[in-house]
Amino acid sequence: MARDLKLLEEKLGYKFKNIENLAKALLHPSKIQETGMASFESNERLEFLGDSVLNLSISKILYQKFPNLTEGLLSKARAHLISRACMVRLGASVSLGEYLTLSKSEEQTGGRARASSVGNAMEAIFGAIFLESDFETVCDCIHRLLHDAIEETPFDHQIEDNPKGELQELLVSRGISLPVYELMETSGPAHKPVFECRIMIGGQEMARALGSRRQSAEFNCARLVLEKLKTET
């Protein structure tokens, strides 16, 4: 088990001072019931703490990364990043289900792949890291693990926001020429490219932005111009 947890530490990018803290974060409530241990020995208390740590960490990261976004957009982005779906995807990326300590019945009924078990354990891990380190350490860990998801936020996860369409409508209503999006540069490795686009309005560059896809970079450009125009109004 110790060897397995060391492998998990490598995937998480954090080495625990006390490996038992990680082990407790992986201790499913079903195992407690099976062995007759006290209920507080499971990972539920750590999950409770980790949920709050995750919420505050993501709030700080988004506040610093997107200085021009409104409170409403920041809230949408945070809700996406702290969602159960996002935690399950993160847990799956480090094969978290393989490390859970489950009861026999939970194991037999597919507990290792259960979304609630994986998502809760991921939050419990953040709680465990916070307890034995400090807020900055766990915040850095969360930022690193969710880097790709954060780069796509808040522009890709809700297409209904459609900043490009909203910008076009605003420009038409003001009698301003329609925007032109230009790809300026593509960088990064082939499996993880970074696109830089700019938006031109009336021959003038209004903003530049990055994205993991050209579309997301264009969305980011449109969002920046929208915020600027709304602020000026």
List keywords for this structure.
233 residues; mainly alpha; Ribonuclease iii, N-terminal Endonuclease Domain, Chain A; Double Stranded RNA Binding Domain; three-stranded antiparallel sheet; 12 helices; 3 strands; 10% strand
Explain what you see.
With 233 residues, the protein is mainly α. It has 2 domains: 2-151, Orthogonal Bundle (Ribonuclease iii, N-terminal Endonuclease Domain, Chain A), CATH 1.10.1520; 159-232, Double Stranded RNA Binding Domain (2-Layer Sandwich). 59% of the residues lie in helices and 10% in strands. It has helices spanning 2-12, 19-25, 29-35, 44-65, 71-81, 84-93, 104-108, 115-132, 135-145, 147-151, 163-173, 214-232; strands at residues 180-187, 194-201, 204-211. A 3-stranded antiparallel β-sheet has the order 1-2-3, with helices on one face. α4 (44-65) crosses α8 (115-132), α8 runs antiparallel to α9 and α11 crosses α12. It starts with a helix and ends with a helix. Residues 155-160 have low confidence and may be disordered.
